[in-house]
Every structure is written in structure tokens, then in C-alpha cells.
Design goal:
Layout: H1 2-19, H2 21-24, H3 30-36, H4 42-49, H5 60-88, H6 92-121, H7 126-149, H8 156-180, H9 183-186, H10 189-198, H11 203-206, E1 217-218, E2 221-222, H12 238-252, H13 256-272, H14 286-307, H15 318-326, H16 330-334, H17 347-355
Antiparallel strand pairs: 1-2
InterPro entries: Invertase/methylesterase_inhib, PCW_Enzyme_Inhibitor, Pectinesterase_inhib_dom, PMEI_plant
Family: Belongs to the PMEI family.
Keywords: Disulfide bond, Signal
Amino acid sequence: MSSLNHLLLLSNCFFFFLQFQQCFSNNVPPLINKICSPFKYYDVCVQTLNSAPGAATADLTTLADYSFKSTYDMLATTDGFLHALLQNVTDPGVKQVVTHCTTNYDESISLLQLAITGLEAGASHFGDVNDKLYMAWENIHDCDRVVKIGPPPPGLPDKSTKAAQFVDISGVIVLHNRTKYSPSKELDAKLRNKEARSHKYNAQEDGFLIEPPRGAKQNGYSHRSTSWNKNAGAGNSNANLSGQRTQMQRMTGKESAMLQMVNSIRKRRKITGHQTTCDEGGTQSTMDLDLKLDRMAWINFHKQERQMKTAKGSKKSMKEVRDAWNTLSMDEKSKFKMPKEDIVDDKVTLEKAAHEDNKVPPFDTRCTPIGNQQL
């Protein structure tokens, strides 16, 4: 009797071990076990993710990529089955169900393809990946709901349930990723710097700070530290941020148009070596008024010559205009001058002329007081 009891006890222990072998198995990597633990279909989840290449050491991104692609293959197979079924079904109720699911699967395949592309592009697209997968998840589960309501098409219920499980696995991975890495941390530093500097969004409205975590690792790589102030966009509209950026560029001389203008003026002064002189108080002398007339003559001549076509039918180049100007006598040049009474402060006109077609007038446009002639 005692031997029989021992035998029954050993049998029960062996049966208990077989039933709960998965609980003691060392074949499930810790990360996969952690992902699949809250999942309703634990065995399906473990079996799917454990089939990923290098599953034992795979990180979250690798598992997500494998899960997405496995789900895509499952959806593509089911979608092909639906299209074939749609050609042969005759019952109106069944045809309505098949048509509904076909539309959902067609859209879900496109959404999942975009999610896979976004995942391969890097963590900066995680928000978009999450949105696309969620829409695909809704479509697949909506089809599964309609199939269960009926009338069920032959062969579709099992395929629909299997596809819904695969989408759920991908959803669990994304949910796990989202819990571990919030959207503010998931965006990579490069995209954050670019968006922060271009002010394409308001950080406060988007619900996360511009500044990435310094030195923190997400999905196996580190975010670089940035010099951008994480509070730069808080409480400001996009228009205000853009205005602040423009104002700062003007203060620092980094605005492209302003920098080009300054460089253009410096270039002209360096090439011509010409400096006008000023009377006391900074007003231009009579000699400078004559120079103004010469400059206006040059501008008028330049406009006239540029409107003329060459033998080849193209506009004259800057060199050709200058050569033609240099061949004119003083009397001929004076014909292009304006009357003195029509001369006004032409600084703006001259600056526009200096920038048009990148031409460089032969004289400087600034009045430099005597004693400050050095550049």
C-alpha cells in the first residue's frame, strides 16, 4: 500500500511537471517572457517571438520588426484568401461580411507596411509607427467582430482569429515599448534638434519637451546631448518662435540676406579701394555729389546694356558691360547722368543695384569721414 501511494505521488508530480513545464522552462528569454506575460495567448506570443533570429539576445526593436513582418505575412495571406472567396461566394449575407473584411484587410496591409518602414527608419518615427499599427489593429478586430456575428464565411473564422492574435502581439510590443520609452524620450536627438530649430511645432501643445534625455539609452543607442534650451518653445506660438529666431539672427549677424549684403559691401570696398569723404558733421561734399552722378550714370548705362541682346541672343555678361563702359569717353558717360536736382539719397537704389545679378558697381556707396578711412 505504501509503495502504491509513493507510485501515485510520483505519477502526480510527473503530470504536474508536464502541465506546467513552460513555467519552469529556460527556453523563454527574459524580454520575451516579460512582453508575453500580460498577453491573453501566452503560448502563441512566446512561440511567435521565440522564432525571431537571435531571439535569446534580441532587443525590443528587433522583436518588434520580426513581429510586424510576421503579422504582415499573416494579413497578406488572409487578404488573398478573402479576395479569392469574394469571387466565389453567392450568399448575400456572407458576401457582405467578406466585402467588409476585404476592405479592412487591404487598408491594414498598407498601414502595416508604413509601420514597418517607420520602424526601420529609427526611433524618431515611433509615434507614427504606433498610430499606423493601432489603425491596422482596429481594422482587423473589426473584421473579426463581424465574422463572429455572421453569417461566417467558410474557413474565415480561424484565419481571422489567428490574424487578430498576431496583430495583438505586435500591439503588446508597441505598448511595452511605449511604457518603457515615452514619446518624449523616443524621438531621437537629431530629429529633435532639427524640429526645435525650425520651430515646426509648439512643444507645450505637443505635450513633451524638445530636449532629449542626456546620455540615456533607448533601443540600444544613446541620445547626444544638445545645447538647445528645452524650455525655448514653452508657452510660445510658432509665429513668436520664428520671430525670435529671426531677431536673434539679426543681432548676431547670422541672417543670410544681411550677411550677404555686408560681405558685398566689404568686397566692393576692398576691390575698388575707393572711399568717399565727408564734410564736418558727416554730410557729403560737392565732390561726393559728382561721384553720385557718376554712379548714377553707371547704373543707367548698366540697365541699358543689360537689356540689349548679344549676337547669340543672350544677355550681355557683367564683363561685357564693364568693357563697354570703359570704352566710353567722359562726354559719352555724362549723357547717362541724372540732373543734380533729381539726386536724392539713393542708398537703397544703389544697394538693390549692387545685388541685382550679383553685379558690383565701380564705386563705393558709403560716406566715410576723413580720418576713418581704414576698413
